[in-house]
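**Backbone description:**
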Amino acid sequence: MLYLELLIQGLIYGSMYAIIAVGLTLVYGLLRILHVAHAGLFALGGYMGLLITNSTGSLILGMPLAAALVGVVGMAIYRICYQPILDQPPYVALIASIGLFIAMEEMFRLIFGPFGLTYTDAPLQSVVQFAGIYLRTVDLAIVAGSVSLLGALSWLSQKTRIGLAWRATVDDPQIAESFGISVLNVRYLNFFIGSALAAVAGVFISLLSNLVEPTMGGVPSYKALAIIVLGGLGNVAGTLIASLVLGVVEAFGTIYIGDILDRDAIAFAFLIIVLMIRPEGLFARR
């Protein structure tokens, strides 16, 4: 029973990591940019979801509105921060992204205060029994939300004209543009979807802990950066598998080596060991 509980908890956290990491993978796959400011969008989603939910009393309204607002902010970041420097070496965009993330953390401190905010009446906190294991409703919502969102993203990319344009732009932007595809619109859509996913993940993690704070995006999103490397840069399927593997390793590690390392340290130790053995990632494309 203990092993089953650890496995379920690992899959729950892995599902949340997947939502964050896939957004990063989308940006890297299209522009070859390590979008560190994704962490700031993750925290912004947590704040927006909490404030809207507290104001309206409805998470059903709070989460999609937070996702839409943060998606628009992501598009603005692309237009203002990344588009003018796309012809520069990749490290220029990386430095700009790191600087933007630091600036966003300071803005959160100034606007929302240095201390954490909590839900007035946190939703999805009721306890349900599943296979003899007690879980909160938010745990089940994370898994269901992850499967639904990533399934919809897969359908969009594989079964629609938008997805065809998306994949063509990833393969060769110049040829895609010669066939009438608006590369700019594809990139805007990419940032909107990736940023909206980050916002949803931010809302979910705020529900898990009933806390939103300026630095909340740091650890989960830096894990996501490592996950996309572990999964093979730009490989969405590899990113999903790596996210679930990391969640399970964390869960079992807290039992067996939790006295030596905390949960986050276990995750990073695992990632470092794997990347030392296979630096191109477990699922890198040829």
